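Forwarding the complex inputs:
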Amino acid sequence: MATRRTFIKKAALGSGLLLAGGFPFESFGAEHWEKLTILHTNDTHSHLEPFPMDGGKFQGQGGVAQRAALIKDVREKEEHVLLLDAGDIFQGTPYFNMYKGEPEIKAMSMMNYDATTMGNHDFDAGIEGFAKQLPHANFPVLVANYDFTNTALEGKTKPYTVIKKGKLRIGILGVGIELHGLVPDSAFGNTKYTDPIVAANTIADKLKRQEKCDMVICLSHLGYKYESAKVSDVELAKGTENIDLIIGGHTHTFMDKPLVMLNKSGKETVINQVGWAGLRLGRLDFVFDSKKGSKLSNAQSVIIIKQTRGF
Amino acid sequence: MGACHRPYYIEQRYDSFYTVKGTEHTDSSFIKMLAPYKEKMEGQMQVIIGHTDTTLTKMQPECTLGNFLADAQLKAAIKTGSGAVAAVANYGGIRIPYIKEGAIRLENMYEMMPFDNVVVIAEIPGNVMKRFCDHIARAKGWPVSGIKFDMVGKEARRIYINSQPLDEHATYKIAINDYMASGGDECDFLVPLKKETTNIFVRDALISYVKELEKEGKPLHPKLENRLQYGD
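Prediction (whole assembly, two chains):
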């Protein structure tokens, strides 16, 4: 597979030179660019199978076997893929009532998710219930603003992780929603919620400066935006400095295009969310360059994207 | 830690999404993994527990799925000998858009009410009851049983509990669920009240309601009754 991808990459460069009438060797041949493909889900809510063919709006859509096939296709064509989820894996079909999340987590491990965060419904079998399914997970659960000290999840989640993809270092953190009023007190027990914006800012700064990450991604279960001033992805983007991308959830928002905002330091933060129930798989492709602001010409990057995506 | 890392900068971004569908394009290893879970589950979930002669639907301010839910909750609460006179459920707790006319399977009840919430009987003073009804009006209507009122803007007017006009000095025993009782859906005003938590899952209340009608040879006959309506 690696051979095929290498071939595609080289072919991309080759045909790029031909199509665009030739770029200077220095700018292209040295391969100072790198590409990352991010696939994402949120609020899959135990929808392991497609919706039944009953005339409903979503009939025939969704399903882990179908999602996995799409992911496999992308992984075959792309060298650097991240697969991320923004929480609420649990609750929504009888699978959850009967098996308490075991097949959901097993399916995510089989798809090789790189990380998830916790949604409010991931507490529906109690903290113990979620902890019990973690041995089936081969991916980290990232949450920076829940303190699980003295609970069954103590030491079993992480605030962030750093993943290397080719020449890139990608920092990923997670934030969760206020639990009081949303989740029964008995279900979250001793979990302490702290301000997600404060937590995200601290971690994102660390990822950019200390961990030297080229990109910082925040998995968020705060919700896209609210009429009130309640903390949301939009508020998170406005209130933080070093987050490049927010993969959101909770509000089940079907965003056909991501929202691009300016963050606290005037830099772009992208927010995206793909509805719920695994009906959609989101995809974002980023082209990186080792020269800041060198701005690959549109022609160049269109060629990179087209060739490597096999349009 | 990444000290000698050569930095890279985001220069371009492309977005798209896939609609997940299609029976031909599947990864069979997932079908295989799910098979034992599915088989055991379906054996239980496909059992027919009753029938409905009309499609039940979800909408606001009043809907047939909501009336069914609130009626089932009240019936279960009355059976415990609690003295409950009415019931309220949060609209967001109904997790399916409809149940089609015909057979009702156990599966439908799990889909409608996946949460393991239990029935709670709250003792609600008349003035808090007024606030509760205003809250329901602001939320554009929630499922109720034994309660009737008009929604005027964000306010509840002409409130009747158990067919009597609301008495601000009386105390009412109302069947709710533990999610609302602990302040869910902004029901913080219910938190300090005296309450009795039953061990009856709301879902089991729905199942019993359907099964009992079936035993009497009757299907559900859902209809709108103007329990909540807009008007001056």
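Residues 1-29, 307-311 of chain A have pLDDT under 50 and may be disordered.
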